[in-house]
Amino acid sequence: LEALEESGFEIEEEADLAAPGNPKRPGASDGKDGPTVPWFDVFRPSFFNSFRQFQLTLPGITATHVLVVFLELLGLAPKGTALMHSNLCRAAETLLAGGELNIFTPCYYFRARKPLDATSDSSGKAGSKADKSRQRSGSRARSSQ
Fold first, then answer.
1. FRET label pair with 70: which of 63, 93, 124, 137, CA 20 to 30 Å apart?
2. Residue 19, by phi and psi: left (phi above 0), alpha (psi -120 to 50) or beta?
């Protein structure tokens, strides 16, 4: 958000749409509080909730990895599938950690607008480098016609 403001944008609205209890969160209705389950809960290993969460436990990861390696050796899965499985398991771990530490969100929303009178850059000089560049390229295009 700081970068947007430094670039001359005005932030009109911003929200973490994935935050538990956010009324704008998908699954909320009639402006009531949204779901209270955090978005990253699906990445939490569990032996009892669902098969998907069992896959994230150490026995689940081991079993699915052995299966993927076996299918790859038989030629039923493309080469590199086992490596991709490892990468996806690591991604699930890091998404869970990022969500628990509140350093990552998958649905950060902002609406910003550039004021119409924004002809000066943040230093107050008339016209930014991008504006001058566009003017030069526009005059070159007109002169070549």
1. 93
2. beta
What CA–CA distance (Å, rounded) separates 63 from 13?
Answer: 46
Helix 81-100 vs helix 58-74: crossing angle, to nearest 10: 160
Q: Which pLDDT tens digit goes with each residue over 38-87?
A: 888 888 887 776 777 788 888 989 999 999 999 999 999 999 999 999 99
What is 28-85 written as a DSSP string? --TT----SS-GGGGGS--SSS-HHHHTTSHHHHHHHHHHHHHHHHHTSS-TTHHHHH
CA count, 13 A, side-chain hemisphere, 118: 14
Residue ranges of E strands in 81-141? 108-113
Instruction: Please check whether residue 18 is in contact with residue 39, taking contact to mean a CB–CB distance below 8 angstroms.
Output: yes
Which residues have C-beta within 8 Å of that of residue 18, sequence separation ≥ 6? 25, 38, 39, 105, 106, 107, 108
